[in-house]
Amino acid sequence: MGELPFFRARTALHPDHLWIWERSVYVDENQRTWLPIIIEMESSLQVLMRQEDVLLGEAVCPGLLAPGLLPSMWQLYPGRRYRGSDSSFWRIVYHIEFSGTEEMLLEQLPDPEYE
Predict the structure, then answer these.
(1) Cα(11)–Cα(61) distance, rounded to whole angstroms?
(2) Per the CATH hierarchy, to which homologous superfamily does domain 17-104 belong?
(3) pLDDT 10s digits, 48-106
(4) Long-range pairs for 95-100 at CB < 8 Å and ≥24 separation?
(5) Which GO-annotated molecular functions does the record name (predicted)?
């Protein structure tokens, strides 16, 4: 039998901030663009952030965007999590780089007030 190729993913540095630029496009502090894929599950909300180069147009004021499930900005917090501009917390499930593409899976943490 032939050997299967071995692929290696590496962990990547988390962006300090992610800001909404336009509908479904976020930008980090290094002007890299991130595309969100929302995953709604019975008991939680997850978002897969995929870093891809996107040609950016004019930035849209967050107040002009239709309300959505995701915050308009995330800020990195201690303990492998982000805090959203809506005060929500998101756990970093994983953040890897593979073949030059980064993916980061975030899971919204329950609001402690409602537990």
Answers:
(1) 32
(2) TCL1/MTCP1 (2.40.15.10)
(3) 999 999 999 888 887 788 778 899 999 999 999 999 999 999 999 999 998 888 999 99
(4) 95/11, 95/12, 95/14, 96/9, 96/10, 96/11, 96/12, 97/9, 97/10, 97/11, 97/12, 98/7, 98/9, 98/10
(5) protein serine/threonine kinase activator activity
Q: Can you count the helices (H) and strands (E) in the chain?
A: 0, 9
- Give the HSE-up count for residue 90: Cα atoms under 13 Å, Cβ half-sphere: 28
Q: Give residue for tokens 């805090």.
A: 83
Domain-by-domain residue ranges, the chain?
17-104
